[in-house]
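Input record (one chain):
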Amino acid sequence: MLHLIPARQNRPDKDVIFALNAEATRRKQAGESVINATIGSLMNDDGSLSILETVTKTLREVPAGEWAAYAPIPGTPAFNQAVIDDTFSTQPALKAAATAVATPGGTGALRHALMNYLQSGQALLTPNFYWGPYQTLCEEHERTLETFRMFTDAGALDVSALDAKLGEQLNKQGRALIFLNDPCNNPTGYSMTRGEWKQVVEVLLKHSDRPVTLLVDMAYWLYAGAGDPRAFLAELTPLLGKTGLLFAWSGSKSYTHYGLRVGALIACEADEKERHATQAALAYACRGTWSNCVRGGLVAVTKLLTDPTLKAACDAEREKFKALLQNRVKAFNAAAQPKGLRYPRYEGGFFVTVFHPEAEAQAEKMRAQGVYVVPQKGALRVALCSASEADVPRLVEALAL
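The corresponding structure, as predicted from the sequence alone:
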């Protein structure tokens, strides 16, 4: 007799991305010539993991007592404030309205948003190209997922589709939670323009007579193309006091220590009483799930955010990794466009998505040639973060088969 409850008896036993990564790794270790463009970790061109040395050194210097002791349930006050100060360093209005709790990576922040801003059985709203675990998180927490068309025929963000789907959802369930992964959307690599952000804000304000909450998933924001990655935040200030405003902050990509699981959920509430209630609810949710995050990781990341010397060193190292990634982005655009590959505007980030009507079959053909990407509905996700610049021509040739 299987004693699992019925809703848990037919879960898939493998994550698709990690399964493909494992298969590609086995073949490579067996001596085959393999390109592994599946996993969302930044790799050097020699295949080794790109690691910020300043982060590693700072982690080693954290005293043993800090690693051993419990962290406060919502995270250390210094960490929470450091994340707020850094995120909103150019936006004082958002900074003044912000409160935060520490989470195990950005995924923990997404979990808290789902459980605190949607009722059981209600649906999350996100573009139709989204990070697969959004669906997993919804299913595990008794929510569902609905999408709107992400791109117009011209390749811009389909704001009208968002408007229509948001209105439909509000009429059906009375509230809405929207996840937008930007800049450097996973899986498409697309970064919204400030004009598109303005249009999104106009749509949210149009529907603000009912509870609407926006979560910006910022996992990849420090790897965006040219310009200030915080610039888009200026467009969001009109939402203060009118809609819910959340930010999923992740240290995994920003500090290249994916296994450390340091993240935060930031909530911006203009009203002090509402801000206090939000903080209490999120702290309570921490206690009811993971209880505490890793104190040593919070201490180290706080130092990296607040010590001017460490911050400058970390930023300089990250810029080198960003340049490494940008070289791959440029190489991909140069090779893919003459081949007629269809994909969104791609200026930076870990991934790009190539549209394909038979994605599963195409991915299978590519695997036969030793080239691994992740098939999705109508598209192939390509993790350029884990492929070398020298491999890009072969990768594009396989995509164009």
